[in-house]
Amino acid sequence: MTASSSSWGRTSAGPGPVMALAYPMSLGVHDKYDDAQAAVDFLSDHEFPVEHCMIVGTDLKQLEKVTGRLTTGRVAVGGLLSGIWLGLFVGLIFALFAPSGDALVAVIGAVLFGAVFGLVWALLGYAMTRGRRDFVSVTQVVATRYEVLTEHNLVQQARDLLDGRGGNALT
């Protein structure tokens, strides 16, 4: 258990009043979010004013999972499909203002134009990368540690409650 105060309070450039505590102090640091969440849930179950608590993810790292190879065909299909969706959206808006007999023509025309535009734009963008990134991926920022904080005037009450729960004490 950390007895020192933390640096997660309000600063002139820091978080606003909703995401800040005036004088936060640490109740503990956890390796898993579930453990930090369980500590706050325990406090809530014992009628502690948890609106004065925060769980702060620290030691952030970015993970990138490669999901596949990027090929000209894959880029073309993706551009075509996104162009069709955009064309359908624009076509439906045009159809609202078109004379009753021309509504279908407006939608079909916009979808075709969108498909061609999406295809050309995607292929042009892919050609400009010159093979520097021929893969598809998803990224996520994750924390490696989670610190539970509360206001300084409530820290002893929270620690007493958490110390009384036995084997589930904060690390």
Would you write up a description of this structure?
The protein starts with 23 loop residues before the first strand and ends in an 8-residue tail after the last helix. Helix 2 runs antiparallel to helix 3. It is elongated and about 70 Å long. Strands 1-3-2 form a 3-stranded antiparallel sheet. It is α+β, with helices and mostly antiparallel strands.
Topology at a glance:
Elements: E1 24-30, H1 33-45, E2 53-69, H2 72-97, H3 103-129, E3 135-151, H4 155-163
Antiparallel strand pairs: 1-3, 2-3
Helix pairs in contact: 2-3
Which value, in Å, is the CA radius of gyration?
A: 27 Å
Q: Label the overall shape.
A: elongated
Tally of DSSP β-strands: 3
Q: Count the helices. How many?
A: 4
Q: Which percent bin holds the helix content?
A: 40-55%
Average of per-residue pLDDT values? 86
Q: What is the H/E string?
A: EHEHHEH
**Which stretches are low in confidence, meaning pLDDT under 50 for 5 or more residues running?**
1-12, 167-171
Ends: how far apart? 6 Å
Strand fraction equals: 15-25%
